[in-house]
Amino acid sequence: MKIAIVTACHSGIANSIIAAGLLDKATAELGWEAAIECQSSVVDGKTLTVDEINQADCIVVATSKTLDLQRFVGKKVYVADIADCFENTKTFLEQAVAKAQTLDKITAPTIVEQPTSGTKRIVAITACPTGVAHTFMAAEALEEEGQRQGYEIKVETRGSVGAKNQLTADEIAAADLVIIAADIEVDLSRFAGKKLYKTSTGAALKKTKEEFAKAFATATTYQQDAANSTA
């Protein structure tokens, strides 16, 4: 059995990478051959080639965002929410292959994102000592909760691969709120004059909704001559 897999999530950080790893491991355990395209903003991934698509018996798409699937027209395709593959990945793959249907241009399925009002603009930074799990998972949590609440949000990650998804001066200037979820020192000088809220990556990950409420309620204007790092 040869399959091709695509993983994607809103921020292209934690969920897409985690899903790709789980699916790669599960296909190996099943004795299948898999070509995997992990759409990520922090890891340089490969795009499925035409040959990989043509040779695949099935295309499995695990995503939480809108994707253009027209390149898979004529192939057996299974589309599911990315969270569906986390609990029992081998069973997920077996069901995907069993339920996949031939895709045509008229019925091409996509995961449709809900429109957001964009009433508030938020920028954030996540960082942890190792720059791996907590950094990216906290970023994912902040982006997904922000989008769920209808905010425009962008999160810069300070990880083991350097700063990714970097905030621009224009994005910072337009932001109504800055959230710093960090367990290490972060230079905050570029946020002078902005409403800023500091928290930990753990709180941002585990109590995301509550942290948003706290941020809007307790954020204070950052002064450049104050301490420019998180505790």
Please tell me about this protein's structure.
- The protein is elongated and about 60 Å long.
- The chain has helices at residues 14-30, 50-55, 89-99, 133-148, 169-174, 201-206, 208-218, and strands spanning 2-8, 33-38, 58-63, 76-81, 101-102, 121-127, 152-159, 162-164, 177-182, 195-199, 220-221.
- Mean pLDDT is 86; it is low at 112-118 and 226-231.
- A 6-stranded mixed sheet has the order 8-7-6-9-10-11. A 5-stranded mixed sheet has the order 2-1-3-4-5.
- The chain has 231 residues and is an alpha/beta fold.
- The chain is 32% helix and 25% strand.
- It folds into 2 domains: 2-103, Response regulator (Rossmann fold); 121-222, Response regulator (Rossmann fold, 3-Layer(aba) Sandwich).
- CATH superfamily of the largest domain, by name, is Response regulator
How much is the average pLDDT?
86
**CATH class category name of the largest domain:** Alpha Beta
* Helix and strand run: EHEHEEHEEHEEHEEHHE
Broad structural category: alpha/beta
End-to-end separation in angstroms reads 51 Å
Main β-sheet, spatial strand arrangement: 8-7-6-9-10-11
Helix content: 25-40%
CATH architecture of the largest domain: 3-Layer(aba) Sandwich
State the shape: elongated
> Could you tell me the strand content as a percent range?
25-35%
Radius of gyration equals: 20 Å
- The total beta strand count reads 11
Question: How many structural domains does the protein architecture include?
Answer: 2
Predict the CATH topology of the largest domain.
Answer: Rossmann fold
In the predicted model, the low-confidence regions spanning at least 5 consecutive residues are 112-118, 226-231
Helix tally?
Answer: 7
- Largest β sheet strand count, sense and barrel closure: 6 strands, mixed
